[in-house]
Every structure is written in C-alpha cells, then in structure tokens.
Amino acid sequence: MKIVISNSSKQPIYEQITYQIKEEIIKGLLTENTVLPSIRNLAKELGVSVITTKRAYEELEREGYIHTIPGKGTFVASQNIDDIKDKKNKMIEEDLIRIIEECKVFKISRDELIEMINILYE
Amino acid sequence: MNKAVKRNLYIMIKNYFFNIVFLILSVPLWGITSNNIGGMTLTIPIMTYTSISIIEQYEELYNYDCILNSLPISRYDIVKSKFKSIFIIYLINTVLTLVTELGYSMLGVKEFIPANMYILGISLSFLLSMIYGAGAVFIICKFGYGKLKTFGIILMLIIMSTLSIPLYILHNGNYILQASAIIIILGAAVYFILQKYTIKIYYEKEF
Amino acid sequence: MENILEIKNLSKSYGNFKLDNIGFNIEKGYIMGFIGPNGAGKTTTIKLIMNLIKRNSGEIKVFGLDNINHEKEIKSRIGFVYDESNYYENLSVKDNAKLIADFYEKWSWTEFDRYINIFGLDKKQKIKELSKGMKTKFSLATALSHEAELLLMDEPTSGLDPVSRQEIINILQEYIEDGNKSVLFSTHIISDIEKMADYVTFINKGKIVFSEEKLKIEDEYRIVKGGLDILESISEEDFIQIKRNKYGFSGLTKDYHKFQNIYGSNIVVDKPNIEEIMLYMVGEKYE
C-alpha cells in the first residue's frame, strides 16, 4: 500500500488518505480481505493525528470500501464488478467536477475544455 | 516518605565534605571552652543546621518543590520526611562527632569527658539541633529561604546563652541525669510542635 | 469512550488574573493541544491538575478519580514535563533520575536508558551542562519511564530547534499508539500541534474559547476575503474578527455559506489552520 501525503495540497489530509486507498482498491492493488493497518498504526507511520486516519477510515467504511471487525482489524471489503465500475466512474466524476469548477473560475468554456481533452487524450 | 528521606540524605552526603573538615578541625578546640561539652553543644547543632540548610537551599534554588510536589507523595509525607531527615542527620552527626572526639581523646590531643557529661552534652545538643534544624525548616516553609539568615543569627545568640547552663548544672552534679532527661523531652517537644505547624503551613503553600 | 481527564467549572483567582469556570475533557488515546497566548491560563490549569496550587471551585478528575482525594495514586500514573528545568543543576542526569525514580513503583531503568539513548544524552553529564532541548528530553525520559498513562506537558517545545521538536512529536505519536494513554500538550507554538493533535483546546484570558476535535474546528471556520466594497455591505456581527488593509479585508467566520451564496466568486473563502484561527480570535474584538 502506498500513501503519500502532501502538506501543501488544498485537499485535507484525511481526504488524501481516503482517496489514495480508494484508488488502490479500485485498481485492484489492494485485494479483498487484505488487512489494513490499524488507525493508530497508520497515524503513527504517516505522522498525522489519530483523528485524521480515523476519519479517513470512517469515510472508506461508509462508502463500502473497507470494513472493520472489532477485535480482528480492518479489511478491504469485497467489491463486486459493477460496484467497481460505478466507483471508478464516481472517482473520475469527482475529479471532473473539480476541473470543471476551475474552468469556470478561469472562464474556460465547455467547448474549450472538450478540445483540450481531445488533444491530451492522444 | 522514606524515599524522600533517602533523597535528602543523598544531597547531604554529596555535600558532606565541609562538615567532615569542620569536625576534624573543631573537635580539638573544644578544650578552649571552659567545659568540654560546650564544644559538643556547638558542633553538632551547627553541623545539623548546615546540612539542613544546604538541602533546603538546593530545593529553593532549583525550585525543586515543583517537582517534588508533582511526584506521588502527599504534602503531609513531604513535611514528615523533612523532619525525619533532621533527626537522622542529627544522629549521623552525633555519632561522627563522638567517634572523632573519642579518637582525639585516645590520641591524647584532648582530655576524656566523664560519662555523665556526655549524657548532658548529647541531650543539650539534641535540644539545640532540634531548635536549629526543625526551626530552620519551619522558617523556610513559612518565610522562604531568604529569611533564614535572620533566624540563624537569632539562634546563635540563643546558643551563646545556653552554654552557661552546663556550668550551672555542673555545680549540682546529682541532677545531671534528670536534667538531661528533661532537656531531651524538650527537644522532642520542639520537634513535634514545629512539625505540626509546618504541616499546616505546607498544606496551604502554592508552587 | 473513557475520559482520562475531566475538568468541570474550574476557577482560580490570582490577583489580576482569573481562571473563569473552565471545563474540558480528554478521551483515552488522544493528543490534545492546549493553546492560547502567554498568560491565558495554560500553566495555571496544569498546576491545578497537579494540585500545585489550590482551586477556588470546580472539579478535576483524572482516571475517573478526584485529583485531591486520590492525589498520590493519580500522580504515580502521570508523567509531567514542565517548562522550566527544576532539577539539581550540579548533579548528573543519572543522579537526578535516581532521586525521582524512587518515588515511582513502576519505574523502569531499562525504559529510561532506552530513551536516554534515543535522545543521545550522556547519563554522567551534569544538568547545568545541558542545553534547554536536552533538559526537556531528560524530563521527557523520566516522564516516560514509569508507565504513565497521562502526559502533562507545559510548553515542552519552547526554545527548541526544529529537529528536537520533531523528535519529541514522534515520540508522542508512538506513545499514544496503543490507545490507552493520552497527552495534554500546552504550547504557544501552534505549528507543533497542527499535524499531530487530535483535539484542540483554546484558552484566552482565563476562559475556554473552544475545546473540540481539530478536524471539526477546521471544518467550521473559514476566512472570507474580499474587496473593501463588499465590506460595506457586510454586517460585522457575522464575523468573529475582521482585518482590513488598503486593498481589501479578511475575516474569520462560521457562517461562510451565507457569504458564498451572496457574493459567489467575488470573495475568496479559505480554510484556516488552527494558528490563523487563534490569531483572529486573539484580536481586540474577541472577548
């Protein structure tokens, strides 16, 4: 599992953690029933507060990516294929929404954006 | 509480060099006073006072009170340990003084002191050590280490006047033992009364 | 969740200064940053917990026990690190430790030696030869060597270089890893707690301004910035504090949604860090 936190990013740290773990699960790098580090161990390793990792895990659990068995630990939840597809789409959607917001601030039109996408996709 | 006593003794031992020097130099001089026990009643209380003074000075200088009162020990036990330390220091000083004195006497540097005079001497030095030692702790707790100097001077005056008591008792040789007993009881009274009041003061102290 | 520390309606008057009916709790397993400007009441609060000074009213419970009735037991389970070095300067690290070790039943010389090694201290060195940072580390080593369940630290990082500060922060994060111990870390250097504190209690002029999960505080407050023209149509009551300069204003507020809806892209809405929140709050407007 790889988690790299940026202190200068506008994204709150817990969101970064949630996002990166989500990503690895969706990409299949973290498979079903893999044991995840405890909230406290992860906090210590990353040098962040316990509440931060707690919140990250709470988000992930709420969205169905992980589940916690009291006394045993936290595991990657089983993901069915449709769910994964949905989740992948959702992640891309979240990123797109962010980009679209920025475009609006910079006053870049929808067509200009689509053109940019076409060029960059090559 | 005993750990606190151990701590005080540890500080005393680390600074005991001065006392040893003082002892070795002063005992032969006892013969200068008109009676030998005048020397004992000066030496032992002075050594006790010095040790206590150093221990308390350390505390106040380094604000060690703050740490001491953060450790798992009650204020009651802190005061009791201070007083117990006074007594133990007094005993140590007495033993060392007597050993030194006997040593010098056997070497012929000074005369032997008759046994009943020893008893009188020890009882007087006990009383004075308690006044000096317990008094010092009481004054420091109530007024702080700074006021100790005034106290020390007053005490010196008291000591000077008590040197005359042994002279009087010498004339009435029969009553030496009874007098000694009374003096020891007085000493114990000073100890316990001052301890009680110091506990009261210490409970209200803020660090 | 259990509270390791509970303070209720605590008051203390000292001449000019008054600690006024304060209260907050610390749950087991977390680090609480205790922040506030100098003289706000942080040290007073810690001294009251340790019963070094007497409270006028209120209640303090540590490990569920009243801090005066169970003073000795509580103190055997607390590790403390104070701002000033209150040790015998002429004695060595080892000797000073010996004088303290005796008082704790659960003292472990192995643990003490381990921390001394980690901190790179020399046991034979006299305290007076140590730098401020080393003295604090010595203090911390003694606090961690008797299985303490609560660490009370009063400005432990003031006067320390960044490397030492980070060392101490790392040790604290390791300390709470098992979820059974807590830390109360008072400081006016807020950057120390920005990353590692789970909870933040902010005290100002003897009163508690807030005591909350750090993430929740960061969620609640925003700094709204805009041109001076916008400032005219804003009600200052919606802001905790406003700062103006020639080119615009910035203000701390909880009601940022309101402003976002009205002013949209004419204003900037930023998430502040704890330090900024404190700086805004310790302004004149905030009482």
Number of separate structural domains of chain B: 1
Structural class of chain B: mainly alpha
**Biggest β-sheet of chain B: count, sense, barrel?**
none
Largest interface: B-C, 22 and 27 residues
The poorly predicted ranges of chain A are none
Query: Low-confidence parts of chain B, pLDDT < 50 over ≥5 residues?
Result: none
CATH architecture assignment name of the largest domain in chain A: Orthogonal Bundle
CATH superfamily of the largest domain in chain A: Winged helix-like DNA-binding domain superfamily/Winged helix DNA-binding domain
**Quaternary form:** heterotrimer
CATH topology of the largest domain in chain A: Arc Repressor Mutant, subunit A
Number of strands of chain B: 0
Report the structural category of chain A. Answer: mainly alpha
The overall pLDDT of chain B, averaged over residues, is 82
Note the main attributes of this structure.
B: 207 residues, mainly alpha, 81% helix, C: 287 residues, Rossmann fold, 6-stranded mixed β-sheet, 14 strands, 30% strand
Quick take:
The complex is a heterotrimer of chains A (122), B (207) and C (287). With 122 residues, chain A is mainly alpha-helical.
What does this structure look like?
The complex is a heterotrimer of chains A (122), B (207) and C (287). Chain A has a 3-stranded antiparallel β-sheet with strand order 1-3-2. In chain A, 60% of the residues lie in helices and 8% in strands. Chain A has 122 residues and is mainly alpha-helical. Chain A contains 5 helices and 3 strands; from the N terminus they run αβααββαα. With 207 residues, chain B is mainly alpha-helical. Chain B has one domain. Chain B has helices at 2-14, 17-26, 36-61, 64-68, 75-106, 115-143, 148-162, 164-171, 176-204. Chain B starts with a helix and ends with a helix. Chain C is elongated and about 65 Å long. Chain C is built from 11 helices and 14 strands. The interface between B and C is medium-sized, with 22 and 27 residues.
